[in-house]
Structure formats: C-alpha cells, structure tokens
Write a structure and sequence with these properties.
Order of helices and strands: HHHHHHHHHHHHH
Number of helices: 13
Structural class: mainly alpha
Strand content: under 5%
Radius of gyration: 20 Å
C-alpha cells in the first residue's frame, strides 16, 4: 500500500476539514425537509455509492475480509457512522451550533489521551500546548470573544449526547489506526460506510421511514455534497492522515471544521467577519502547526580525526 508524502496528506486533511465545514451550511438546507435519521441514512447511501465508484476509479479491490477484520470495520461503522451521527443529530436538537462545535472540539484531546493509553504515544509539551491553543481558538471564534458565556451554560441531555460524540470519534480514530495495517483508507472507509449505513437503515425501518424522502432539489444537492465531499472524500483523507500522522496529530484537524464553517458562512452567506473570528482562526492554525511540526534533525558534529 503506497503512502502519500506528508505535505500532500496535510493538504488533504485541511481540505477534509473544509468539506466538513461545508456540511454545516448544506445541513441547514436539508434538515428542515426530513428527519435526522433519514438525512443521515441518505447522506451515507450517497457516500457509499461514491466510495464504490472511487474504488473502481482507483483500481482498488474490496478484498475478502476475515472474521476479525469484519469485526473491526463493523466497529468503525458503529462508532464513526451510526452512533456518532445519531448522537450528533440528537445533540443539535437542543444545543446551539456554536456550543456544539466547542464540545466537538474536544475530539483531539480525547484522541491524544486515548493514543497514549492504547498505543503508548508520547504526550509532548508541543502536543499539549497545540491542543490547548486550538481549543482556545475555537472557543474565542464561536463565542465572539465572550468565552465565559459558552462555559456558564448548564449541561443537559443534548450536551451529554455531544460529549458521547467526542468519545465515539476518538474510538473511531484509534480503531482506524489498527485496521489500516492491512487495508487501504479507501477500502476501510467503504466497509465502515457499508456497515454503518446498514445500521442506519435498520433505525429508519423501525421508525417507518425507510423510503425516498420527498425533498426539494436544493435538499438533494445538499445531501449529495455531504455524501460525496463531506463523507466519501473527507473520511478517506482523514484515515490517510491517521495512517501517516498518527491518531493525535490527525484528530487535531477537527478543530479546523468550525473555522471552515464560519469562513464559508462569511463567503457564501454574507455573514459578518469579526476580530474574534480572525484571532480564533489564527490560534487554531497555530495549534495545528505546533502539533504537526517536526523539528529538523540535529546535525552531528564530525568526529575528530585521530592524530
């Protein structure tokens, strides 16, 4: 399995965050026209079709999985597709998007701690400072500079669901690291989407919603964007990052998502650009740079010649 150069992977991770940021805008269009489980199901049906097309375009084969590998990809589908999306949609029913994004911004810290216990990854001062900077940047950007207003709100069921998302995404990232030892990111993502979509279909069937929703063209185009760009491409690139950068370094790019969402809101929706947005965005980028910075190796002094 060929590995992309590090700089290419960093670029793909940044684009994945941009695509995820765009789902906040397209999600606003699709959400009023269908229930959360139906929207999640059709997002992943479209994503699965796109992933199958990508495997053919890239001449990759959906290899036969062993029982252990089926268990691994099913765990990815359960954590990163099925449970995460249901908890996320449930949380957004009662929690404002800004507060939800701040909670989701805890994903990198949870992943870093998990990688320490599961893989023995070192938690360096650069990782701690970088994670703290990125989290502070997200808080400043989302709160408009009034961070205390976000912190002072109570914790309800919606917040608990979003904290569950943090744990689920950390689990998804850590499980991906072990699964990528034999399978490519594209194949892993395809199988995870397949199992997760099947689980979402069972929920829709139980709710009596397993049918093609009657929605506008704009809603279907939004679902297409979320399925192709926000899921198929972004998830594959994210797993490439997990394989090359490691779980903790890859997860920190999640903090770029609210930055991307707010930037796209300014560019596409004409929302106002403020100083806290600029300060917060710069802090997030600085935190990501710190965590992924690799200092140049020290040059060893030449050994002195013997007389």
């Amino acid at each position: 399995m060929s590995v992309a150069p590090r700089n290419v992977v960093l670029g793909k991770m940044s684009l994945a965050a941009l695509f995820w940021g765009g789902t906040y805008i397209t999600g606003r269009i699709a959400a009023p026209e269908m229930s959360a489980p139906v929207a999640a199901l059709w997002r992943f049906i479209i994503a699965l079709a796109a992933l199958l097309a990508l495997t053919r375009l890239q001449h990759q084969r959906l290899v036969r999985l062993s029982a252990k590998e089926w268990l691994a990809v099913a765990s990815l589908g359960l954590s990163g597709v099925f449970a995460y999306n249901l908890c996320f949609m449930y949380g957004l029913q009662s929690v404002p998007a800004s507060r939800a994004s701040l909670i989701i911004a805890l994903c990198p810290a949870a992943t870093m701690v998990g990688a320490f216990f599961v893989f023995g990854d070192r938690i360096t001062w650069l990782k701690i400072v970088g994670t703290a900077l990125a989290l502070i940047g997200v808080a400043i950007e989302l709160s408009g500079g009034n961070v205390r207003a976000l912190v002072d709100q109570g914790i309800g069921r919606g917040e608990i669901a979003l904290f569950a998302c943090v744990i689920l995404w950390a689990v998804y990232t850590l499980l991906s690291k072990t699964t990528l030892s034999r399978l490519s990111p594209l194949v892993v993502t395809t199988y995870a989407a397949l199992t997760g979509t099947a689980m979402l279909a069972l929920v829709a069937l139980a709710r009596g919603e397993l049918e093609i929703p009657h929605a506008s063209t704009g809603a279907w185009l939004s679902l297409a964007y979320m399925g192709i760009f926000g899921t198929a491409m972004a998830f594959v690139w994210y797993l490439e990052g997990v394989g090359v950068l490691g779980p903790a370094r890859a997860a920190i790019f999640v903090n770029l998502v609210p930055v991307a969402a707010i930037t796209l809101g300014v560019l596409l929706l004409g929302e106002r650009f403020t100083a806290p947005m600029a300060v917060g965005g710069c802090l997030v980028i600085a935190g990501i740079w710190l965590i992924n910075h690799q200092p140049a190796p020290r040059m060893q002094a030449p050994a002195a010649e013997s007389p």
